Amino acid sequence: MPPPPNKPLFERFNTHTSTSIELPLFGSTWRLAQAPNTNHLGTTVWDASIILAKWMEKNARKGSELSRPKLAGRRVLELGAGMGLGGLAAAALGADVKLTDVAEVLPLLKQNAESLMGRASLATSDSAWVAGAGSVSVRELDWEKRETWFRRGEEEGEERADGAAKGRGKGGQKAAAAQAAPPPPPPTTPEGASCPALSSPAPYPSPSPPPHYDFVLAADCVYKEDILPLLCEVILAVSNRRTVVVVANELRSHSVAAAFEATFSPHFSMKRVPRAKMDAEYSVDAISIVVMKRKHAPGGKKAGEEAETAETAGEEEEEEEVATALAASLVLKEE
Fold first, then answer.
1. What is the dotted CATH code of the domain comprising 9-334?
2. Predicted model pTM
3. What is the pLDDT of residue 211?
4. E strand residue ranges, 46-189
5. Which whole-number Å values give the CA distances from 153 to 115, 204, 228, 312, in the listed order?
6. Radius of gyration over alpha carbons of the chain, in Å?
7. Which residues lie closer than 8 Å to 38 by C-beta, 6 or more apart?
8. Cα distance between residue 263 and residue 256, in whole Å
């Protein structure tokens, strides 16, 4: 059974003793495995991810950057996914989600993806959200290892929840055919340089840089100052001016919070979600949700608009090629 709703949020979830949690979400009870007593912080379902998921649920129909109309069929990347709650909530709203974390966290992350989005789970579920669910894949992405800043397509080391392997609806179909699309251009920052405190980025692994995503999620990833330049660099690498970045985080240190703003504000506009927009029961003052978008390129707004137009044209061409590849695969199946 889910924890009693009359208990404070931190008493309900942040116990560091339970090997699983249950959360009412999208009209059903979600159960996620965790291992809070390991040496890795990523094996725990942290409160920021719960608040993020409940915000998404509250605004599922409209009213937020992560509503169903905006997420359905879109590509979402969750960084430092941990037990995957934020990304799995996005998949429930129709997105094609890639959950990423370091290698030590992946076994439990894959377990949660499979238990909620696997073929068997979806086939036996009577939850309303299942009909519009997107797809989920899991793979390693270590901010400190550029060789894990992967390229487009189904790659070695990437595993899909088996219910999503062939896709459910338009989003899953586009994901299944995405490997036919050409690689995007290399990422750039508005200043043409890397984030503060980082030297010039090393070349991306051949043959192509990381893909750009429509949405990037990060829940409780801002907890030490020295990791912020790495997180910023990764987000810049996988985003463009159309990407919506959502960071949910608990305030543990004012100096870390100030460093977060100092690191990201030169590159991103930053807007805090009002608490009134969050779930009344699943929100606390110490945990915030910040929505960010890339700032315009050097040369001002006009140059940024021209660059965005070029990016949009490239994305439209990419979607057309993906659709063509999908159609060709369907013809082959019929034959």
1. 3.40.50.150
2. 0.77
3. 80
4. 75-79, 96-101, 135-140, 159-160
5. 24, 16, 28, 20
6. 19
7. none
8. 10
